[in-house]
Amino acid sequence: MLFFRVNRRFRRLFYLWKLERNHFHTHSTSSHEITTNFSNGRNLTLSTGQYARLADGCAVGTLGDTSVMVTVVSKTKPSSSNFLPLVVDYRQKSAAAGRIPTNFFRRELGPTEREILTSRLIDRSLRPLFPSNYNFDTQVVCNMLAVDGVNNPDIISINAASAALALSDIPWNGPVGAVRVGLINEEVLINPTRKELQSSSLNLVISSTKKNLIVMLEGNANNILLQDLQKAIKVGSKEAQHIINDIENLQKQTGKPKRVLELAPKLNEEISEALRTLSQMRLREILQNYSLDKIARDVALSEVRTNVLEQIRLTFPDSDGNIVSDGYNKLVKQIFRNLVFEKDLRCDGRDLDQLRDISCQVDMYKPLHGSAMFQRGQTQVFCTVTLDSHESAMKLDPLSIVTGGIKEKNFFLHYEFPPFATKETGRIGPIGRREMGHGALAEKGLNPIIPSDFPFTIRLTSEVLESNGSSSMASVCGGSLALMDAGVPVNTAAAGVAIGLITQYDDSDNISDYRILTDLLGIEDYLGDMDFKIAGTKKGITAIQADIKIAGLPLKIVMESLQKASDAKGKILQIMNDCIKKPRSTKKDNWPVTEKLDVEPHKRAKLLGLGGINLKKLFAETGVQVSQVEDTTFQIFAPNQSAMDEAKEIIQKLLTTERVPDLEFGGVYKATIVEVRDIGVMVTLYPGMPPALLHNSQLDQRKVAHPSALGLEVGQELQVKYFGRDPVSGLMRLSRKVLTAAKSAV
């Protein structure tokens, strides 16, 4: 028994000594940093070794006085999923900007829309460079340390995440470098400040890896020309190379050795050959049957899959079902891609540059301010426009105001993707990250065509009723039609299209051949290498987003894709113009109206009433809102013309009442009784005057319990003396008592 106690004590002492040694070793690590100098003189600093040393990787990025700490942690045991379970958490911290959250709890709650969109931006910059067989739970956490309100933290977060992954032991084929590109007076600006972005015609984020390979593109533009966008991408990619080189140097100094990743178990050659024999001809037949639509093709492929996997299970009972299933999926992908190269035709029979059949319709339902249906192949989107007052503008959270410089939005798009759109069942409720991202992209595509001085708040909804690829770009097309149907004076129509890509690689892992696909199908997105969405007008580009699934895209393919998208966009706009060419000029009966009202300073109190009671009463009776723009300028918003006419009549009465006579302190006036109460009588001294109380105590020298004791009735006239207004309540002080006392004395 004594031996076990001594042994246990010895093990405890050894554990404490080891823990102390590790603690000393960890905290004695020196910090390292590198600084990237951009062509415009601004510097990005990346450092490591100072914070969060227990994480697999940590880096702090600083640009100006904005600093972001990014940590990465990946489990050592693989997950059961057959894809990369990567989670990016980007959170805005109010303390970093010297603010206190304005919610009830005064602390950060759930992620805001801006946080979710930035998390997606970082995720899409990192995900393509993970090994294809890496399925370990990985989390990237972006923690804002300081925000100066000048430099946006999202670019810093991408670069710090890239550095943290490069320095960690997590297998990753990076690093990447990210820059924001602006365009002011046709001059490209790298990492513009928040103020510079407000005058920039381009806001583009570029993530690139070595050899100028593009990993991610995301941005919006004020209808810029295609050649200007292409120039900005080239310059941004070149600047990103400086960041990549500096991260590689930092990695050589202090990076950890990468984990040894076990090779994925290979499918037995005999089983692989059996899969090919059982399914290849059947799959090729299905994928070359151009009469099949999405549902029929999916059903046919599902039947082949079920049949083949069942036969393999019976023939090879000892085989691993997951490995066999994965091998079958790879075979389907290979056959699908090979057919595109062999035939230069797609699974629905279209040429590589051919658009699907498009149909449009507007003015769907009369009660709506604006509505449209846009159908492209088997993708169908229903859009509605609602016009409301400026009071309905979307207010942003305080930290988004600091980083974005925008306090409110009077145009916003809400995108919905219900499960029935793909013949599925599922949860319907608060929108997910994917829906939020698609809606934000479509909103960027339409925002430049909205006039800045439009007097209403615009809410555009886009509900996907059928989906077979490119629903976000269909939302741009349908939204543009709905805006014109609602009479919004847009500068021009906008349309969007998605471009796909299928590549072949040589033995050196370089792209040897490729096919660019215009107007992407859902299956082409799933089995392809790229989903490149471009929106714009006939003149230029308004929004761009590239989801790239391979480890970088050469600039040549990017430029070619942009050109094909621009050509397709022009064809779509021609079809849309056949439906509606310009914003509707004839007003609908249910359209809201707005007018400006100038009020003379001395009449402003009449319009407002005590505590704004007149405007509240006006809204309750007519639904008309009156908001003050300047000292004497008001804006009237009415849901329709009849409500406006009724409201103007009421306002006219408020403003044209007779002028209030100047009452002299101590003066005697004739008062008319308008109401008899228990405590006194309500009287008026002049037409239009609010009734004032003449209290029982001021009616007579004698004590009066009720006005009826003196025979007072409604409509009766009596003499009263005016003693000004009460300094606290502001009510008139009137008395009949002093006049009766004077008569008694005579």
Automatic annotation (TrEMBL):
Q: Which Gene3D superfamilies match?
A: GHMP Kinase, N-terminal domain, K Homology domain, type 1, Nucleic acid-binding proteins
Q: Which InterPro entries match?
A: ExoRNase_PH_dom1, ExoRNase_PH_dom2, ExoRNase_PH_dom2_sf, KH_dom_type_1_sf, NA-bd_OB-fold, PNPase, PNPase/RNase_PH_dom_sf, PNPase_PH_RNA-bd_bac/org-type
**Is the Acyltransferase keyword given for this protein?**
no
EC numbers on record? 2.7.7.8
Q: Which superkingdom, per the lineage?
A: Eukaryota
Q: What class of enzyme is it?
A: transferase
Q: Quick one: a GO biological-process term for this protein?
A: mitochondrial RNA 3'-end processing
Indicate the segments forming the S1 motif domain, all copies. 666-737
- Pfam families registered for this protein in UniProt: PNPase, RNase_PH, RNase_PH_C
List the GO cellular component terms: cytosol; mitochondrion
SUPFAM superfamilies for the chain: Eukaryotic type KH-domain (KH-domain type I), Nucleic acid-binding proteins, Ribonuclease PH domain 2-like, Ribosomal protein S5 domain 2-like
* CDD domains documented for this protein: KH-I_PNPT1, RNase_PH_PNPase_1, RNase_PH_PNPase_2
UniProt-recorded Gene Ontology molecular function terms: 3'-5'-RNA exonuclease activity; polyribonucleotide nucleotidyltransferase activity; RNA binding
**The entry's keywords:** Nucleotidyltransferase, RNA-binding, Transferase
Family according to the record: Belongs to the polyribonucleotide nucleotidyltransferase family.
Q: Can you name this protein?
A: polyribonucleotide nucleotidyltransferase
Query: Organism classification, top ranks?
Result: Eukaryota, Metazoa, Ecdysozoa, Arthropoda, Hexapoda
